[in-house]
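Have a close read of the entry that follows and walk me through the local backbone shapes. See right below:
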Amino acid sequence: MFRFTVLIALLLALSSCKRWVVYEVSDPVYQTGDNLAWAAKTFNSKGWAKERGETGTRVFWLRTDVSISKIMTTEHLGVDIHDFGAFEVFWDGRKIGENGKIAAGTPELPGTEKSSFLIPDSLATTGNHLLAIRASQSYEQDTDRRFVLRIESYDRLLKEPLIMMSFMNLMAGAFLIAAIYYLFMFINSSRKEYAILIFCVTCFLFFALLIVEYLKFYIDIPYTRFYLRLETIGWLTFSISLLVPLYFTIQFSFRRRWLLMAGLLAALLYIYVSHFREYDLTAKYFSYAMWFASLIVALNALVQKEKGGGIVLAGLLLSAVVNFFLYYDIGLFISFTIIVLCMLYLYTIKAKEVERAHQNSLLLSSRLKLELLKKNIQPHFIKNTLTSLMDWVEESPKEGALFVQALAVEFEILNQIAEERLVPVSKEIELCQVHLKVMQFRKEIRYEWTSSNIEPSDLIPPAIIHTALENGITHSTPAEDGMIRFNLNFERGPGYKKYTLNTMAKNRPMGKDKSSGTGFQYIQARLTESYGAGWDFSSRRSANGWQTEITIYTPQ
């Protein structure tokens, strides 16, 4: 897409504004009334007004002198006229065309704001000429649109809009496809990234802006609807000027996002109000506000050493250079295109990071499954368990059978949950209860398990409470009555859920800090795998023994 943009820029540069006809145009003069003799080249218009004044629904005339000094083409000449109203055009007294129908005894049929007319070859010569316009402006009477005249090859006057439209249609099509593609990506994504939606909407708005800007070449827009199109362009530019900086603030994790966006919104509204109905100027100032807001975010990203910050900053500076040297309409669209390409590049960087994180999560998930099984079948666990089992079988075969059954159930549950990312808390509690039966045979200590406020169907990562339970067993010795008690409490609040495992027993002396043991690392890795950074974990001594808290933050 970058090559496509460069190609358009080169083609626009090659079709530069070389003048094939050198001419000068005098200031127009006006007269209210209707007399066909005023079209004659020999008529003396001395005393006519330099301003049109209030004409109401009456017919009025406009006359301007044209001096052609050089013609460097053999093609037919034409004249391009920008003006409001319905009018007939006379060149050296000869009628060469009309735009709409003048309100002369009949209702006016509004003409278009821009119209082109062929100049007869016999009158397309160097020297002095007269352009006269017989007109009416029954609508938009308070608007005195500036009269603009351009003389050029008639063929070029007709082809230039078509060439420009072809370039802009290609650009508009590219952004429409991008908008549809990223819309489908957002809809079908399990993880809703609103930066994608913002980029999609921005591409669609830019497509709409291109279409509305060049709509005048597709259909005839009467001058009574001329400002409706400009108003639409203004609001589209307003929306794009808000969304582009918002996208950058999200992708670069800009800390004061809403403060910046509130300031930008206030600036855009001030521009709209203070320059009301100054459409081109308003759109230009909108783009300036967008550029400065985006520049602030890009500079902050560069300081924070965010990936893509340098590319976005370079793109913003390049867009400013392009807009400075090229004609406003063309420069604006190329500048916008460069900025959107920066947005796309930034998204690809973030997408690459997400893909890498996904691959790492797959590797982590596989490693965690192995860790879950490994930590429960490690040699010393198996050796100690089998030694205890042999003693129980020799001393009490019946109890030994219960020991074997409990051990088998524990391994069966571990095998069931090893492949899962999340399991019901009821399955986790079942695992903990079976493990306590096994440990009761091994250590010949009585254990008691209770739970409160549990939601059995709630999902949590596998074996995290089981690991916390093992930690409580390791850190504790029986209380005075010879028991170690465990209580699992569940609490749900706005935006979070919390599991608290209390071990009620005496604490063993700790020779070193256990906060970073392999068990804790397993719990933290499992929480990160499922919830990213949306969790808290703590395990510490308490007045009654040992307390472990797992807090998971949930969307409200």
User: Anything to note?
Assistant: The CA atoms of residues 246 and 294 lie 8 Å apart. Residues 193-356 form one domain. The two ends are 40 Å apart (CA to CA). The longest helix spans residues 328-374.
